[in-house]
Fold this sequence. Notes:
- The chain is α+β, with helices and mostly antiparallel strands.
- Helix content is 64%, strand content 11%.
- It contains 9 helices and 4 strands.
- It has helices at 3-31, 40-52, 56-98, 107-127, 134-145, 150-169, 171-192, 208-219, 245-256, and strands at 198-205, 224-230, 234-244, 262-268.
- It has a 4-stranded antiparallel sheet.
- A hairpin with a 3-residue loop joins strand 2 (224-230) and strand 3.
- It is elongated, with a radius of gyration of 20 Å.
- 43% of the residues are buried.
Amino acid sequence: MKKNEIFKIIMDFCMITIGAIIAAFALGEFLIPNTILDGGINGISMMLSKISGISISIFIIILNIPFILIGFKSLGKSFLFKALYAMLAFSFLLAVFERREGFTNDIILATVFGGLMLGCGVGLIIKQGGCLDGTETVAMIISKKTNFSVGQIVLMFNVVIYTIAGFLYGWDRALYSLLTYFITFKVIDIVSEGFEQAKAVLIITNQSAEIAEDIYKRLGRTVTSFEGEGLINGKTMILYSVITRLELSEFKEIVTKDDRKAFVTVTDVSEIIGRHVKKLPEESVKTK
C-alpha cells in the first residue's frame, strides 16, 4: 500500500472521529436531555433507553450491527470498517456525554443547535465513506430495487418513529423531533451533498470491461459505454453511470484499484427523469 493511500485512510478515520464527537455531543448535550428524538436506529434506541433505563449506547450498537452487515454485501469492506468504527466511536462518546448535564433546557435552542451539530457530525462521517445509522444502508438497498429514493425511504421510516414518540412523550416533542430531523438532513446536504444526491460519473479508460463489471457487482449500477478518440492517446472507451453520494467513496476505490489508468469526472445531477438505474438480479453487465 502506498504512503498516500495510508495517509488518506488515516485522514478518513480522523475525520470520522471528529464527526462522531460532534454528533455524540449534539445528541448527549442537546437532544436527549430535552427528549428530542433523532431519526432511524438512534431514535429507536432513545425510546428503548427511556423505557428500560439501559444506556442508549448499548442499544445503538446492538440494533445497528445487523443493518451494517446487510449493507456490507452491497457497499463493500471499506464501508463496513468505516461504519463500524463510526458507530463504536459514537456510542462510546455518547456514553461519556450522557453523564454530563444538558447544555440547555430551552427546547428551541436544543432543537436548532442540536440539529445543526448533529447534521455536521453525520455529514462529516458520510463524506468520508462511513455511516452512523444502519437504516440508511437498508434504505439504499431498497432504493436499488424500487422507485423510491433513499431520502423518501428514510423519511417514511422516521415518520413512523415520530408518530410513536407522539404517543409516548406528547405531540409537541414529536414535532420538535421532526423539526430537528429536517434541520439535520439539510445540514448533511450542505456538508456532504446529501447521501441520496445523485452523481454522474464519466470515466475515460482502456480498462472499461473490468471497471464496468466492478461497478455493477459492487454498487449494483449499470454502465453505458461508448467509444471515443483522444487527441494524443487515440481510441479509448468512455463509461457513464449514475451513483449516489454514499457510493462515491466505493466508486473511487473501484477506478483506482490495482493502479488502473482512468480519467474520471464527477458531477452533480439535479434531476433524474425516468427510472433511476437499479440492480436487476437477472441482468448481466454489457460492455462494448
